[in-house]
């Protein structure tokens, strides 16, 4: 049988379509798998923070988290081998999301030192701080968890410090600025701790106003 150039061209085109179709389906499949992985992790991390806030470290088991998230134990263990890994990832994930929320709130808030300090204080008085506090306390007596928490604390600390500089519109290379901003963060963490057992909002508002006046003079 004679194979003409047209027949060869048509055969090659069919092969190209076949391979392109397979490649496209492969890309789509991998994308769907990546989307499912992200969604599974998101559910697990949000459920973990909820569990930490409601039940504390002792009540935050991997089984409880998987049930809350609607995720199988196998899927949960595939992504996070230990409770420590899961909780540290959850706090970091929610922390990063909370920082983004704080940035958006800052864009529409009043541009004053008091407004910025109030925003930062409210950020630390959120459920994220409660979840992180449970993790920090557990890490005190768990060497393996402590290593994870120290790294997490350093990353979140740098993120929040940088955000405070940005919101206050200050340069920490200038004398006194770094100490003033760090003292602000230490203050709001203390206020958030005082808010754990009872609503301390009224006293927090008073302290924030007082500190904002002092900070404005310093900066």
From TrEMBL:
All residue ranges annotated as the HTH tetR-type domain in the record: 38-98
Pfam short name (any one): TetR_N
Assigned keywords, A-Z: DNA-binding
Start-end of DNA-binding region: 61-80
Record's keyword annotation contains Flavoprotein: no
The keyword DNA-binding appears for this protein: yes
Matches recorded under InterPro entries: Homeodomain-like_sf (IPR009057), HTH-type_TetR-like_transc_reg (IPR050109), HTH_TetR (IPR001647)
Protein name, UniProt field: TetR/AcrR family transcriptional regulator
Organism annotation: Lentzea indica
Source species taxonomy: Bacteria, Bacillati, Actinomycetota, Actinomycetes, Pseudonocardiales
């Amino acid at each position: 049988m004679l194979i003409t150039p047209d027949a060869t061209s048509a055969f090659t085109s069919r092969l190209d379509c076949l391979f392109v179709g397979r490649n496209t389906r492969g890309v789509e499949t991998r994308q769907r798998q990546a989307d499912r992985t992200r969604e599974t992790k998101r559910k697990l991390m949000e459920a973990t923070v909820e569990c930490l806030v409601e039940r504390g470290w002792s009540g935050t088991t991997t089984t409880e988290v998987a049930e809350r998230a609607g995720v199988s134990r196998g899927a949960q263990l595939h992504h996070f081998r230990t409770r420590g890994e899961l909780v540290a990832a959850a706090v970091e994930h929610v922390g990063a999301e909370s920082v983004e929320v704080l940035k958006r709130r800052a864009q529409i808030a009043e541009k004053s030192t008091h407004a910025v300090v109030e925003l930062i204080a409210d950020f630390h008085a959120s459920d994220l701080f409660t979840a992180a506090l449970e993790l920090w306390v557990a890490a005190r007596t768990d060497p393996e968890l402590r290593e994870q928490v120290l790294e997490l604390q350093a990353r979140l600390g740098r993120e929040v410090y940088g955000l405070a500089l940005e919101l206050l519109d200050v340069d920490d290379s200038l004398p006194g600025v770094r100490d003033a901003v760090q003292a602000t963060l230490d203050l709001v963490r203390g206020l958030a701790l005082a808010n754990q057992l009872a609503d301390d909002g009224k006293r927090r508002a008073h302290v924030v106003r007082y500190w904002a006046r002092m900070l404005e003079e310093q900066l």
